[in-house]
Each structure stands twice: as C-alpha cells, then as structure tokens.
Design goal:
Blueprint lengths: L3 E5 L4 H13 L2 E7 L3 H11 L3 E4 L2 H10 L6 E4 H10 L5 E4 L7 H9 L3 E4 L2 H18 L3 E3 L2 H9 L9 E8 L9 H5 L3 H4 L9 H9 L1 H14 L6 E5 L5 E7 L4 E5 L5 H9 L13 H4 L14 H11 L3 H17 L7 H12 L8 H20 L1
Parallel strand pairs: 1-2, 1-5, 2-3, 3-4, 5-6, 6-7, 8-9
Antiparallel strand pairs: 8-10, 10-11
Helix pairs in contact: 2-3, 4-5, 5-6, 6-11, 6-15, 10-15, 11-14, 14-15, 15-16, 15-17, 16-17
The structure holds NADPH dihydro-nicotinamide-adenine-dinucleotide phosphate (NDP) and magnesium ion (MG).
NADPH dihydro-nicotinamide-adenine-dinucleotide phosphate binds next to α1 and α6.
Amino acid sequence: MQQAISILGSTGSIGRQSLDVIAACGIRAAALTARRDVTELEAQCRRFSPALAVLTEEKAAADLRIRLADTSIRVAGGQEGLLEAAVLPEADTVVTAVVGIAGLRPTLAAIQTGKRIGLANKETLVCAGELVMAEAQRCGAEIVPVDSEHSAIFQCLQGCQDRGEVKRLILTASGGPFWGKSQAELEHVTLADALKHPNWSMGAKITIDSATMMNKGLEFIEAMRLYHMPPEKIAVLIHRESIIHSLVEYSDHAVLAQLGAPDMRVPIEYAFTWPGRGPAVAPPLDLAQIGTLTFALPDDGRFPCLPLAIQAAKRGGTATAVLNGANEAAVERFLQGEIGFLEIPRLVEKAMARIPVQHSPTLEDIFAADEAARACVNGLVLA
Ligand code: NDP
Ligand code: MG
C-alpha cells in the first residue's frame, strides 16, 4: 500500500518541509492541519488533496470550508478537529509539527492508534516524556525523531544491540545568533536580532529558543526521554557550523557522528523511510568547501537556560513542564515586545523556584503545572 502521512502544523517551517519531502517521495497526504493560516492551508489542500483539513481556530475553519466547497476535502475545526486529524485511519505516519504543549494531546492520540510518529514537537517529550514513551511502548507506536540532533543520534544508534554500551550522547548546538556576545551586549539585543538564526530557517518560537539556548535545554530533556538516558550521560558541544548534527560515544571510545547540510528535510525524510533511505531532497554535503569544523563548550553564565533545563531534568516530575510552560509564556511576551531578551531566563528561573514539583504526575497534573507556570510568568510581567 502507498504510504500516507498526516501533518499536524502543515503551514509551519517543519510542516512545509514535510510536504516537500512527501512530494519528492510520492507519499500521499492524509490530513493537514494549522491554527489559522487559511490561505496557505487552502493552497496546500489544492496541491496535495488530503482527505481532511483542519484549522483549530473555528472562524478560520469556517472560511476554509467555504473556500474548499468545490473539492471533496472534509474541513474540521477546533481541538476536536486536530484530534481527529491525529487519528485519521488513512495515515500510517503522523508528523507532529505544532508548536508547544498544544502538541501533547494530539501526539498521544496518534500514539494510541499505533501509528508511526515523526516527532518534531519536542515540547511533548519535555512536558510528559515518561508518560508518552510508556504509551508508545504499550501501543506499539514507533517514535522517530525529526529534530536534527535526535535524528543524528537515532542514526548513530542503528545496529547498537545494547544501550549499556553507550557512554554518552553528545548534542551539538550552533550557539545561535548571540554566541560570543558579552553580557552587556546581551542586555540590549532586539527581537529582530534574535530572529536571525545563523544556520537554520525555523518558526519564531524555536528561533528564540535557539538564541537563549533553551532549545538545547529542551533537546537535552528530549534526548533523555527518547533514549532512556540519565542526565550524566548527555553532553552539549557548541559547533557553530551545524554540519555534525550530533554524536554517540561508545564504551570503547569509538565516536559515531551524523553529518549533513543544515537542512531539516534530511531528518524529516528519514522519519518516513526508516529503516530504509529515500531519494535526495536536500543538497549534498561538500566538506572540502566547508574546510573547517569548530567546537567549544557551552557558556552557562551567559546562557543560563541550558543549566536551568538540566536542573529541571534532574528534579524530574512536573519540573520540566514548569520549565517549558514558563519558557513558552516568556517567549510569547518577548515576541510581543513586552520584555527584554534577558528577562526570559530570569522569568523561567523564578517560576521554577516558586512552583513546587509533583512526582509521578498524571497527564492532568502536567497540564496544571503548565498552567501554573504560565500564570506565574504572566503575573510577574504585569507586576
Ligand atoms: P512554526 O511556527 O513554523 O509552525 C507551527 C505550525 O503549527 C503552524 O502550522 C501553525 O499554524 C500550527 N500551530 C501553532 N500553534 C498551534 C496551536 N496552538 N494549535 C494548533 N496548531 C498550532 O513552527 P516550526 O515548524 O518551527 O516548529 C514546529 C515544532 O517542531 C516545534 O515544536 C519545534 O520545536 C519543532 N522543531 C522545529 C524545527 C525547525 O527547523 N523549524 C527543528 C526541530 C524541531 P498557523 O500557521 O496557522 O499559525
Ligand atoms: Mg534541534
């Protein structure tokens, strides 16, 4: 049977690149979803003819229904629509490319149908990784990472029979647009500066997370959950060129790395084709032209979001949901121009200090911790 894929968040950066890949590989689109971008979703629907199109904002969904009246595409709205797209029987794989904790419920719903998950939405594993991984195991759903670092690790672990042989997972980080800036310079960086990532073109939220290094903190937690590794076995290495996407060090000190041009279509495609490989969608890597690859240790003093995330990871329970919720709220405020760049780690740290951790949380406890963290940050901003 021909492969069919549903993309949750198809109008975003990962969503659009997922559509490039399915077009190149001859894969069908089963369901496409977005929040409110009716123009882009209509264009995607006309090109890819999914069975179902969803906009979570009801007004936008009503508009799309009128625009697609001349097609056989069914249109749904709201959170129910998003959940319906996640479980649509026609799809064998679901790409989770919505931003933030909004991805958690639909990812869990897709897992419960046993489908393969191409996991881009890292916040799902940060907030509820233990629950999500246990549910995937119970339902036989394969979670294949789309995040480039985790895809690199996934590739370097192919053929590893015994995880006990893994000494360390080494996550590479570009360092973002502000690597090398002094503390005084960081006080004055603007939103426009923060949105200019040196190597990757991504959605606004993850671009800010890359500038604060919170992205690497979220990825640290994502790696712990995906690969069942304790924090002591995960390291972060600054690698400005984003050519080595991550590495695995084994017990005998052999180190395996995955390299490639910085192009998300490579890990997206591998999530669809694994354990096989598909045609080239991304450009080839020309190492002779790149010439030099550089490495450095992270700077925890100037970029405190990474150590804050590691601290949350070590605390466990709802601490990572608090970290994530506080960060989502603070980044939203920064994107609205309401707070300065360095307020982001300060607000996250305050929320982590004020909200007690609950161990062995249920899904509802996790959502409550997320709410408490957002309320704390929003209260601090208004105070
Ligand atoms: P974008 O902001 O570019 O796209 C987000 C998509 O999700 C859009 O389709 C958007 O619809 C939809 N969406 C946003 N909020 C909601 C919501 N509350 N409910 C339902 N749908 C929503 O994000 P990215 O593609 O950059 O990132 C997506 C996820 O992938 C994130 O978790 C990110 O961390 C992860 N990721 C991204 C990478 C990248 O290169 N971009 C790399 C690795 C991971 P609309 O357009 O209508 O707003
Ligand atoms: Mg990444």
